[in-house]
Amino acid sequence: MKIIHLSDYSDLSHCKDLITKNHNTTFDNSNIQEYEIAKNKGQGGIKMVVYGNGVRYICYKATFFEDISLKFTNTDSVLRFYYFLNGELNLKTDDPSEEIKLEKYMKLCANCNSDSTVNLILNKNQEAYVAMVEISRERFPEEFAKDLPPFKHIFDSFISKKFVEDSKIASGHFNLSIHKILKETTNWPGDKALEFMYIKGKLYELLSYEFDFFNDYLEQRIALQEISARDIQLVDRAVEFIKSNLHHKLTTSQIAEYLNTNVNRVQKSFKGVLQTTINDFKKDVRLNEVQRLLIETDLSISEISDVVGISSKSYLSKTFKEKYQTCPKLYRQKHKNLH
Question: Based on the structure, what is the number of domains in the chain?
């Protein structure tokens, strides 16, 4: 098994037989490193973003032709979040008897002391899509909490060992809102200098979500296990069904029947996975499609109403204005010329 050693804030230059660096950008005491997997070793790439404030982001989207161990050795005390977007992996700690099997939509929150080691095992010939966010307890400044002084005590607990030891949130499943944020961190099309700010914003959005979840946990408003894998799979199927049948005006009962479950289960799963009701989700999907059709087609407002399953032109205009602060006609005039 090939071992990749990763200490705090290190690069991957010592793995020249496995990967090749194809881009490096430094900006304001921060650094983006991008690597490609050597063609004889696999395919895909690794991106590492290191910020001077003690935050590190690493994204692995790669397939290796041999088993790989990513060995994280800490010289600093850190709080680390792992998010598994695809593939199956194994995680091992200093305790040889402790091994956790990880799969799509699972997350781990690990407290790592300055003398601890974590091994992430990537299986050969299987794509691994993993995002990791790491916070240094010593180096992470007050800037994340300075705008939230009433919650400073919660923030202090959030970055302390208490977060895992007391909440038992070491493993679980993350929802599709987090999935969306993670996907967006890998799809920046613009200037590399601006990518630092873009990814930092997304990481803070992610940490804000985790902070809110921890706050809710402390106030005992939610259970420790956010959602189950079955919930995610159920909502995945429901989302595809809704998007492919917009013009049919599906009811929740029809969606539940398609999924071979009951209405209560569908509603509960949507609330847990997407933080919205199924009716609000359908409304939002329809309005997103209206927005696209206004820009990309010459269909009339009435024709668009029929396509997306909205009952009338007047109701479409009303709901569209509520979301976009303008009517469909003016939105089309303003944005169609830009495309």
Answer: 2
Share of the chain above pLDDT 70, in %: 70
192-228 exposure pattern, b = at least 16 Cβ within 10 A, e = fewer: eeebbebbbebbeebbebbbebbbebeeeeeeeebbe
Is residue 135 within 8 Å of 208, Cβ to Cβ? no
Give me Rg for the CA atoms of the chain: 23
Task: Quote the CA–CA distance of 273 and 228 in Å, as a whole number.
Answer: 9
Q: How far apart are CA 15 and CA 9, in angstroms?
A: 15
Do residue 270 and residue 203 come from a single domain? no
Please say if the pLDDT value at position 155 is more than 60: no
* Cα–Cα nearest to 164, from 78, 85, 106: 78
CATH number of the domain encompassing residue 67: 2.60.120.10
CA dist., res. 154 & res. 307, Å (int): 48
**Residue written as tokens 């997997």?**
37
Residue 180 lies in a domain: yes
CA distance 213 to 150: 16
Last residue of a domain, one of 164, 187, 218: 218
Residues 6+ apart with CB under 8 A from 158: 210, 211, 214
Distance CA 56, CA 47 (A): 11
239 or 232, higher pLDDT: 239
Amino acid at the residue 295: I
Contact in structure between 156 and 149 (CB atoms under 8 Å): no
Note the pTM of the prediction, 2 decimals: 0.63
Lookup: tokens for 4 = 């990749």
Helix axes 263-274, 252-259, angle to 10 degrees: 90
